[in-house]
Structures are given as C-alpha cells and as structure tokens.
Amino acid sequence: MGEPILVLEDDVRFCEHFLDAIDEICASSLPFVRLYCMDKKRERFVKRIGNTHYHWSLKNTNGTQGYYLTPRAARAFLRFGVWDSPVDVQMEFVARHKIDNIIYKPFPIAESADAATTTIASRFSAPASVGFCLRLLRPFYRAAVQLKRAVFKLFYRPPEMK
Prior knowledge:
With 162 residues, this protein is of the alpha+beta class. The protein is 31% helix and 15% strand. The chain has a six-stranded mixed beta sheet with strand order 1-6-3-7-5-4. The protein has a two-stranded antiparallel sheet with strand order 2-8.
C-alpha cells in the first residue's frame, strides 16, 4: 500500500475538531500519532512538544482506540514477530522500536458510551496453559525489559516539531 493509514476502533465517536486534527497530523512528518489514550492518571508523564497539539510520553498511557500510522512505523512495529504485550503497550515501547509515542491533544476521538463493557473473555487473567518454566522466567524477563527502558530513557531526546 505504501500510504499512511488511520486505524479506528468501532466504538469511538468523533469530536468536532476530528477532521482538522487529521489534516494537521497528515501534514506532519510524524510516523505514529495516537488520537486517544485511556490512562488519565499518567497525565503528568505526558509532555507537550513546543506550542503544538502534539505530546510525547515514555510511559504506558494505554489504549489503541485510534491512531495514525505510516508505513515506516508499521515496519518498525512488525520487525518484532513475537509480541509479548498487548498492542497498545507494544506500540508505546519506544526503547524497542524507536518510534516516538506521540499523542494528539485535545483528543480528536472519544470513547462512546458503549465502550464501558468489554467482550474480551478473561482479559485480566493469565492463561492457565502457561508452563512452570515460563512462569519462573517471567520476573527475570520483566526485569530485563525494565532495565532496557531505563537505559534508553537516559539517552532519549524528545521529538521536536519543525
């Protein structure tokens, strides 16, 4: 395809400024822009980029209700054939794929009233089929991931808007 795409879940609603926001995002050179994030408690970790509508974060802000994705960002995300986290967490893992986690504010989309209920069965429970060895290694893997993120954050430079 070779063109940027807009990915939207079916249970979002469009805000008044949706089309203006999409025009602005398409005119930018940003490879990945989130149109919404769920975790409002982490708002203090979301930093504004200059005097723009764009913000960046190295923390998980959760939610893939809508985002703008270029082929470059898609290739970077797909380079890792095995994902060990939910999609939103994987896309926020800047230390892994080097694609900035950019959030557009004010959000051009919002959750609809129907979004409060999930149809994902056992969403928050670990699968029973996980073997003993994997359960034993999980804390070490998580520690290695956290170490990688910590080292990355030491040298990270937030994006600048031109």
